[in-house]
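User: Hi! I'm working on a homework problem where we have to compare a predicted structure to a textbook description. Could you give me the structure for the chain below?
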Amino acid sequence: MAWREKVATEKRAAFKAWAYWAKPVPGFGDPQAELLVIGLAPAAHGGNRTGRVFTGDRSGDWLYRALYRADYANQPESVRRDDGLRLTGAYVTAAVRCAPPGNRPTPVERANCLPYLQRDLALLGRVRVIVALGAFAYDTVARLSGLRPRPKFGHGVEALLPDGRVLLCSYHPSQQNTFTGKLTEEMFDAIFRRARELAHA
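Assistant: Happy to help. Predicted structure tokens:
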């Protein structure tokens, strides 16, 4: 909590004119979603600034372009809460709701936020596929759902959850992965094509 608020006062020069959100960032999307995308946590100068998950940062640029290409989003970018972005059949959230220092949530932060993710899963009753962006999100969903045995995380790994939903893993679209080529747009697009196949199987 202190970190997200500190970031909001010690702004980046590029965002000096912004009034930062600096509160827990809720999920966003279609309440009738078939696809749930779960990330790590809001970026300090992304969701923590804009108030919408994966909005205003490079990871979000990658995610919403991919959702647009997969026909889950009406536009390929998300820069602010009121930019007109709409998701159809998809909902996006994060394992942790507040921006953590160094983009590294602690186990305590995850435990504190788990009830919110649990509530999302309960309310989004039509979700058939969950895409976990990164090992942290995968581990969070696996713990929450009681997945046993738990396959090792990897890009494209699929697991059937006890409630019948399918958990599909993807590398996180962080700069660390996208700048190095560990995650390419083709690889990312394949995840959402597969998600749609699974949702309609």
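For your comparison, note the following. The chain is about 35% helix and 10% strand. The chain has one domain: 2-10+18-199. Good luck with the assignment!
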